[in-house]
Amino acid sequence: MGNALVSVQIIPKTKNGEDVIPYVDEAIAVIDKSGVRYEVNPLETTMEGNLSDLFKVIEQMNERMIEMGSSNVISQIKVLYQPAGIEMDQLTEKYKG
Predict the structure, then answer these.
(1) Which of 26, 27, 47, 61 is the most exposed place for a label (fewest CB within 10 A)?
(2) Of 8, 69, 15, nearest to 34 (Cα)?
(3) What sign for the dihedral angle of Cα 17, 23, 74, 89?
(4) Which long-range contacts (CB under 8 A, 24 or more apart) does 35-41 make?
(5) Where are the domains of the chain?
(6) Does domain 2-87 have CATH number 3.30.70.100?
(7) What is the tens place of the pLDDT at every residue in 3-52?
(8) Are 5 and 88 in contact (CB under 8 A)?
């Protein structure tokens, strides 16, 4: 169990205004390769783990967007930090039926 939940939405500025979905797919691939637990939702992806590790993943996501040709990236981030530990299921289990 990690000490944080971090939701992130990546908004890359593409070179010629092209579709950002391939960029978002690549950002999610970065998360997947990291090995952290995550859930993709319609407007953001939530990761679970240790706060410092999750921030490193976000840094890698941003760097990958630049490697793909983005001139800049906006990352909208929400953080729940709970030193005693937290899991996504603790916040959503009552809604799953």
Answers:
(1) 26
(2) 8
(3) positive
(4) 36/2, 37/88, 39/88, 41/7
(5) 2-87
(6) no
(7) 999 999 999 999 888 899 999 999 999 999 999 999 999 999 999 999 99
(8) yes
